[in-house]
Amino acid sequence: MDIRIGNGYDVHALAPGLPMWLGGVQIPSENGFVAHSDGDVAIHALCDALLGALALGDIGHLFPDTDPAWKGVDSKLLLAKVVERVHSQGFAVSNVDITIALQRPKLAPHIEAMREALAPILGIAPQRVSLKATTTERLGFVGRGEGCEVWATCLLINPSHHE
Ligand code: MG
């Protein structure tokens, strides 16, 4: 058995009048994320965790923001492509754990929807998808409402691999 751990980190700036996509769902908010894609910073951190576990580089390398193909793209599609790579190497996702730092809006009412949105793409049950949200007590750029910060960890398992 081959077990790999990965971690990912991403930050996106907030700006008024943009849609807020986070964890695969749209959150009602007066602010959204400035990005080339749909700006789903939670999915981006998760993609980097999955890629990191297999030392496959990062999401910016795979889907460059200079490529018009990824303009406004649904980040769930990027996640699906990353999971495809994981599976093609014989690995399955065991679980993921994601921490989102955002001052507002409160994310608690949306956590279950995020788990339900991400689980099928990861090929696991929602019980294996952990999402946690915190404010930063009004400290730093997150606390000032200027952006959102996300950390993601994943565990991958390949039952037959011995390299
Ligand atoms: Mg990003």
Q: What count of structural domains?
A: 1
Unreliable stretches (pLDDT < 50, length at least 5) are none
The CATH superfamily bears the name: 2-C-methyl-D-erythritol 2,4-cyclodiphosphate synthase
Count of alpha and pi helical runs: 5
Largest sheet: 5 strands, mixed
How many β strands by DSSP? 7
Order of helices and strands: EEEEHHHEHEHE
How are strands sequenced across the largest beta sheet? 4-1-7-5-6
The quaternary structure here is single chain
- If you consult CATH, what is the topology? 60s Ribosomal Protein L30, Chain: A
> So what's the overall shape?
globular
| Strand residue percentage | 25-35%
Helix/strand/pairing category: alpha+beta
| Helicity range | 25-40%
Radius of gyration: 15 Å
Q: What's the overall average pLDDT, rounded?
A: 95
Can you describe this structure in just a few lines?
With 163 residues, the chain is of the alpha+beta class. It has a single domain, classed as 2-C-methyl-D-erythritol 2,4-cyclodiphosphate synthase (60s Ribosomal Protein L30, Chain: A). It is 29% helix and 32% strand.
Give an overview in words:
Helices cover 29% and strands 32% of the residues. It is of the alpha+beta class. It has a single domain, classed as 60s Ribosomal Protein L30, Chain: A, CATH 3.30.1330. It has a 5-stranded mixed beta sheet. Strand 5, helix 4 and strand 6 form a beta-alpha-beta unit. The longest helix has 14 residues. The protein is globular. The protein starts with a strand and ends in a 5-residue tail after the last strand. 38% of the residues are buried. The protein binds magnesium ion (MG). Magnesium ion (MG) binds next to strand 1 and helix 1.
